[in-house]
Design brief:
By secondary structure, this protein is of the alpha+beta class. The chain folds into two domains: 161 residues, Ribosomal Protein S5, domain 2; 122 residues, 2-Layer Sandwich (Alpha-Beta Plaits), CATH 3.30.70.890. Helix content is 29%, strand content 27%. Strands 1, 2, 3, 4, 5 and 6 form a six-stranded mixed sheet that branches. Strands 8-9-7-10 form a four-stranded antiparallel sheet, covered by helices on one side.
Length: 302
């Protein structure tokens, strides 16, 4: 019987996001506080001799060469062969629950789950630091998922420092069903704010330049929010409604268009969700009541 493994890949939200500058390589230096939440994609891995294959459920995402899951699998396969490990393959099934192009890093989390899952399935036993360095070739959000569940992220996303989040928080997460291109939001933000390529070394030390957790909750900040709110007109009234219903920290996640409000209990978040469902019956709005994760679902494998 072939070796198999199942992993859950969590979504993330940005509790704070500041764009520092645009780099020569086209990426942006940023300062962000990221938090894993209890919304998951599921991945099932089965070892095969050599071939890599991908099947996707609950999504129209193409299972082709551009898919981050296959790109991650091929990158790991290529690297292991270059280091004289035996060539191995895998059949991968991905069940999507995290919306695509939503500011929740579902694709990045799926790719990290693939690197971690195949590292375990193929018995490579590579440390998470090596896998995290590999993941930088695939995208900026990936390194966070090797740490978490709460972490400050700097550089273009490659520098991650986990912290203890004392808030046992629940969130009400809303997604209007309109995919947003992260690259285009960053491009518009750069144009609107005069960000250019620069040689200036932006150095943010472990503590320097960061707000405290109390300040994060008291003064919501996401530099990309204005760009996306101007594109998706439904977001502004939804944000206002979240505040009126008792949301503490109300903010857009990443480049959007998902927005969230934090609540002190599941009951409070569920009550607010019920009122929004009643008001938004005819819309394509997706609504979840979710906890902050206290432990990463990847922790036992890295």
């Amino acid at each position: 019987m072939n070796n198999t493994l199942c992993l859950r890949a969590p979504a993330k939200i940005n509790l704070y996001l500041k764009i520092i500058n645009r780099r020569k390589d086209g990426y942006h230096n940023l300062l962000s506080l990221m938090q894993m939440i209890g919304l998951y994609d599921e991945l099932h891995f089965e070892e095969t001799e050599k071939e890599l294959s991908l099947q996707i459920q609950n999504s129209t995402l193409p299972a082709d060469q551009c898919n981050l899951v296959l790109r991650a699998a091929r990158l790991l396969q290529k690297t292991m062969c270059a280091e004289d490990h035996a060539h191995k393959g895998a059949a991968i099934r991905l069940k999507k629950e995290i919306p695509v192009a939503a500011g929740l890093a579902g694709g990045s989390s799926d790719a990290v789950a693939t690197l971690i899952g195949l590292n375990h399935l193929w018995k490579l036993n590579w440390p998470k630091e090596k896998l995290a360095r590999l993941s930088e070739k695939l995208g900026s959000d990936l390194p966070f998922f090797f740490d978490g569940p709460t972490a400050w992220v700097t550089g273009r996303g490659e520098s991650v420092e986990s912290i203890q989040n004392p808030f046992k928080t629940w969130i009400l997460l809303l997604n209007p069903g309109i995919p947003i291109s992260t690259a285009s939001v960053f491009q518009d933000f750069s144009s609107q704010n005069g960000l250019t390529n620069t040689e200036t070394a932006i150095k943010i030390s472990a503590k320097q330049g960061r707000p405290t957790l109390a300040e994060v909750y008291q003064t919501p900040h996401n530099d990309l929010e204005r760009v996306t709110l101007n594109r998706v007109v439904a977001l502004k009234p939804l944000k206002s409604r979240l505040r009126r219903l008792g949301g503490k920290l109300v903010l857009m996640s990443g480049s959007g268009p998902s927005i969230f409000g934090t609540f002190e209990s599941q009951e409070q978040a569920a009550l607010a969700a019920g009122q929004i469902r009643e008001f938004e019956q005819e819309s394509s709005l997706r609504i979840w009541v979710l906890p902050f994760l206290q432990i990463s679902p990847f922790s036992e494998y890295v």
